[in-house]
Write a structure and sequence with these properties.
By secondary structure, this protein is α+β, with helices and mostly antiparallel strands. Helix content is about 45%, strand content about 15%. The C terminus is likely disordered.
Length: about 150
């Protein structure tokens, strides 16, 4: 499966419609190492004058959400066959339901939760250290783990 096909499949899994403009944006990002949304927009607007800046920003957010790109790497696509292995966390609920979150989604959950509880203003989470609190699940997981974003 090609990188483009992997990205399209992940977008579909996240409920994203695959439009001609989105396919064009994926192609632009895959063919060049773009350094900003403005650069992506500039290239896209040459091919389709109807595309808006907001469309580009929404697409970048969607690609970052599925873990296909990283803004830290200047929109370089980071999608490989083993990208889903070991990336993120599992949260086990008291009814034995398991929620699997990619590192991007896990970071968003923590970030939003901390904002809503008043712990964050303009900061971003740089890392997470999990320490067991004496529960059976905590003891099984070990004493401390650090998750970096």
């Amino acid at each position: 499966m090609s990188r483009k096909e992997q990205i399209i499949e992940k977008l579909k899994e996240n409920g994203c419609r695959i439009t001609k403009q989105r396919l064009m944006l994926i192609d632009i990002i895959l063919e060049d190492d773009c350094s900003s949304c403005k650069e992506i927009f500039y290239k896209a607007s040459k091919a389709d004058h109807r595309i808006g800046v907001a469309t580009v920003y929404r697409m970048i957010n969607a690609l970052e959400e599925i873990g296909a790109i990283s803004r830290k790497n200047m929109y370089k696509v980071e999608c490989s066959d083993d990208s889903t292995k070991g990336d993120g966390c599992e949260i086990i609920l008291d009814d034995n339901t398991i929620c699997r979150l990619s590192s991007v989604k896990w970071n968003r959950v923590v970030q939003e939760g901390m904002k809503r509880c008043g712990y964050l203003k303009d900061q971003k989470v740089a890392g997470i250290r999990i320490q067991s609190g004496g529960t059976d699940a905590g003891r099984k997981a070990g004493t401390a783990q650090r998750i970096k974003n």
